[in-house]
């Protein structure tokens, strides 16, 4: 089927049909542009969402040591990467479909305009030739009528008895001249008719079919190019599906590796004081006039027994050592555990980076057009070296922690004996003498903290604090979310534990 052969007389229909095809391409370009705007807005909203819920600050980093907190941060990170893939889809659709099709559409418009202009010009030439034919035909008819009239007039003059020989001769010459002119016009008309028929045959069997065939080829090529654009709409998203799947798998993995028991153990290790529970307070019989000088109760004054630790004075702290051996056993354990947690966190971060590089390398190997896999080798090597170094440090600190935990029994034995009065009465007295002399029964702060937020203490027992204020900790949080602090002004009371940050 051919437009030139079957639609030779449907110029207007072809004009409207090809214009409709161009309009469809333009509509599709507009449709893809609006799709890219949706993708860009979606990605922007996802990034804002992840930023809004991402943990920041030292307290939040401390919380992320728990698997359920850390898993949520991993989900946010994966979602952020997912948003990046949506942005990539939008960018590729804009450059691969909208820009390319817009350029192609301009070429189509120019080509269509050229073909239609050629068809109109051929039509105008045929119409002009037909007008010239009509003009020649009319002239031939007019001249033939004049010749016929002149011939009749010559015959009439010749049969007229009163006409002279000169008049007859003159009439015959005039009739002959008219007849000769009419014959010339007849020949011109015949030649013009032959020429027109040839041009008309060329127009309908050659020129118009060729032009309409070019329009048909143009339209079919437009359809094929538009079909490719339709496929691109899907293929662009398919190309990033492996990475999107990795992001979604990462989200699922973050949820499955949560360990609630380990989180509970970590919470206990972070907040247990390490001190033994206080023993019973012995009865002091004042009715017998007994005033014991060294009562066991003096080991546990009502306000300070749970707060003081014989190694707490800063000027008794030995020089810092890498294995924290200068610290008391429980504090050493906590510091070693904190160091191990920091190294573990850095190791996990480095491992995640290594996994991401391997993931990206796999994608590049499957889709070479997205990047060169060999370009990632230096980063992969450096990451592997960092992982090895961190694992070495982790093993070192874990061995020190094992050593500290192993020596814990002797320390506990001393503490238990002290609580039950096995140690001589003067030994604990010597330990606390310097505290009793220095503070003279005044309750001693057990630490310092800084207010993160302003708190209006309106209820009984609470106090008001302002953001950035330095406070002394008088009583730790017992698990109810409140702690007792002392302000520089001397005001003392309870505040929410989450409103402050411990000062080292």
UniProtKB/TrEMBL annotation:
MF-aspect GO terms: lipid binding
Source domain of life: Eukaryota
InterPro entries, A to Z: AH/BAR_dom_sf, F_BAR_dom, FCH_dom, HR1_CIP4_FNBP1L, HR1_rho-bd, HR1_TOCA, SH3-like_dom_sf, SH3_domain
CDD domains to which the protein is assigned, alphabetical: F-BAR_CIP4-like, HR1_CIP4_FNBP1L, SH3_CIP4-like
GO biological-process terms attached to the record: endocytosis; signal transduction
Subcellular localization, as worded in the UniProt entry: Cell membrane; Cytoplasm, Cell cortex; Cytoplasm, Cytoskeleton; Lysosome
GO CC entries: cell cortex; cytoskeleton; lysosome; plasma membrane
Naturally occurring in which organism (per UniProt): Lates calcarifer
Family note: Belongs to the FNBP1 family.
Protein name from the UniProt record: Cdc42-interacting protein 4 homolog isoform X2
Domain F-BAR: 1-263
REM-1 domain location: 326-403
Every SH3 domain range: 444-504
Name of encoding gene: LOC108894755
The entry's keywords: Cell membrane, Coiled coil, Cytoplasm, Cytoskeleton, Endocytosis, Lipid-binding, Lysosome, Membrane, SH3 domain
Coiled-coil annotated spans: 105-174, 333-367
Keyword Ribonucleoprotein in record: no
Pfam families: FCH, HR1_TOCA, SH3_1
């Amino acid at each position: 089927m051919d437009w030139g052969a079957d639609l030779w007389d449907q110029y207007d229909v072809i004009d409207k049909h090809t214009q409709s095809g161009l309009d469809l391409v333009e509509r599709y370009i507009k449709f893809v542009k609006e799709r890219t705007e949706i993708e860009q807005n979606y990605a922007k909203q996802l990034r804002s969402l992840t930023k809004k819920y991402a943990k920041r600050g030292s307290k939040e980093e401390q919380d992320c040591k728990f698997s359920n907190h850390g898993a949520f941060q991993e989900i946010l990170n994966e979602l952020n990467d997912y948003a990046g893939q949506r942005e990539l889809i939008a960018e590729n659709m804009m450059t691969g479909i909208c820009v390319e099709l817009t350029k192609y559409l301009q070429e189509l418009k120019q080509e269509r305009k050229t073909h239609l202009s050629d068809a109109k010009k051929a039509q105008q030439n045929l119409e002009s030739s037909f007008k010239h034919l009509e003009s020649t035909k009319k002239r031939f008819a007019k001249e033939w009528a004049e010749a016929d009239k002149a011939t009749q007039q010559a015959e009439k003059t010749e049969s007229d008895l009163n006409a002279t020989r000169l008049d007859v001769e003159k009439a015959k010459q005039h009739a002959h001249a008219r007849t000769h002119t009419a014959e010339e016009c007849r020949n011109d008309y015949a030649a013009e008719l032959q020429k027109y028929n040839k041009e008309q045959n060329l127009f309908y069997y050659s020129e118009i079919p060729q032009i309409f065939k070019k329009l048909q080829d143009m339209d079919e090529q437009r359809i094929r190019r538009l079909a490719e654009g339709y496929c691109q709409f899907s293929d662009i998203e398919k190309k990033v599906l492996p990475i999107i799947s990795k992001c979604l798998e990462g989200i699922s993995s973050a949820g499955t590796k949560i360990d609630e028991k380990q989180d509970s153990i970590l919470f206990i290790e972070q907040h247990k004081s390490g001190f033994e529970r206080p023993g019973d307070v012995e009865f002091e019989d004042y009715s017998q006039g007994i005033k014991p000088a060294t009562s066991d109760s003096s080991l546990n004054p009502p306000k300070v027994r749970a707060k003081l630790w014989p190694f707490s004075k800063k000027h008794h702290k030995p020089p810092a050592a890498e294995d924290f051996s200068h610290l008391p056993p429980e504090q050493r354990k906590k510091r070693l555990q904190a160091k191990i947690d920091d190294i573990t966190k850095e190791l996990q971060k480095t491992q995640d980076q290594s996994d991401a590089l391997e993931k990206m390398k796999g994608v590049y190997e499957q889709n070479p057009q997205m990047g060169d896999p060999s370009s990632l080798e230096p980063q992969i090597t450096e990451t592997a070296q960092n992982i090895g170094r961190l694992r070495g440090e982790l093993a070192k600190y874990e061995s020190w922690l094992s050593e500290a935990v192993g020596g814990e029994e002797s320390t506990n034995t001393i503490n238990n004996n002290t609580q039950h009065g096995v140690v001589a009465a003067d030994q604990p007295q010597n330990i606390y003498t310097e505290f009793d002399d220095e503070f003279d029964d005044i309750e001693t702060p057990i630490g310092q903290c800084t207010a993160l937020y302003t708190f209006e203490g309106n209820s009984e027992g609470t106090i008001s604090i302002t953001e950035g204020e330095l406070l002394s900790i008088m009583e730790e949080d017992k698990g109810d979310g409140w702690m007792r602090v002392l302000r520089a002004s001397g005001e003392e009371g309870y505040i929410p534990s989450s409103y402050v940050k411990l000062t080292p």
